[in-house]
Design goal:
Arc Repressor Mutant, subunit A; Rossmann fold; 2 domains; 5-stranded parallel beta sheet
């Protein structure tokens, strides 16, 4: 959906280096509701960026001023909240599970999966943040999920694998979710992967890979789909399960 919130998430997802534009976009996702009372001066002071950078950010998104950006952002945030409520009104975990089953011939332990989702949701609620790790794809699938979680006061940080060095100490606390369909991310970034597993007691792996996965707190084993064309839908359904369960239990 082409809203201001969508554009901000896109900036966060598509910036490989933590430049000032990323800093501003991520700060907004961390303070979506605080923005209502925040003028450009207080934004600048709280985010440790210049007012000039904020204006350039607003112009990059197509707005002439910070006030114009803020008004439009708050309007679309309210609209997104109503859409989230409507989307979840009739949606159930059983419906999502049925969708999951329809895409695979593998047996899926429903009780185990639901318990894992509940544990993830509880950890997110306790830590108030979520970090996603992996290659550009499948992390690109998380766009709508990140928007929904932001509406529910949970910032999601995207850490794409790239050719530079990643400083995971900057991630601080939070739930760390590694998304890799085949496990190629693990094999190609073995040292980085083990570093992730050793630094956080709430590192969760979502992958088809079940061997040599190291010391992760939780492993959600992805089923094989009836066609590779449906692989991405598995990730989308699991993210929807996390979003829905958080909405039902804690929002």
């Amino acid at each position: 959906m082409n809203t201001v919130l969508s554009l901000i998430v896109m900036v966060c997802q598509n910036t490989l280096k933590d430049d000032v534009m990323y800093t501003i976009a991520q700060y907004i996702l961390e303070h979506v509701y605080d923005l209502r009372e925040m003028n450009i001066k207080s934004f600048s002071e709280n985010a440790y960026v210049s007012t000039t950078s904020i204006i350039k950010f607003c112009q990059m998104l197509g707005f002439n001023s910070y006030s114009e950006f803020k008004n439009q952002f708050l309007a679309t945030l309210q609209m997104r909240g109503m859409q989230l409520s409507e989307k979840n009104r009739l949606l159930t975990m059983d419906i999502l599970f049925s969708q999951l089953e329809s895409l695979t011939n593998d047996h899926i332990d429903k009780e185990k999966l639901f318990k894992q989702i509940d544990e993830i949701v509880q950890h997110i609620h306790e830590d108030k943040s979520l970090h996603l790790f992996g290659a550009t794809f499948p992390l690109a699938l998380a766009q709508s999920f990140i928007e929904d979680m932001a509406v529910m006061h949970i910032p999601v940080y995207v850490h794409q694998n790239h050719f530079g060095e990643n400083d995971f100490t900057r991630c601080e606390k939070g739930v760390w979710l590694i998304m890799t369909l085949s496990g190629r991310y693990i094999e190609s970034n073995r040292n980085e992967y083990h570093q992730l597993c050793s630094m956080n007691q709430q590192t969760i792996l979502i992958s088809r890979k079940i061997e040599n996965i190291g010391d992760v707190a939780m492993n959600i084993a992805l089923p094989h789909t009836i066609s590779v064309h449906f692989d991405e839908f598995i990730f989308l359904i699991l993210l929807d399960m996390i979003q829905l369960r958080y909405y039902q239990k804690l929002y």
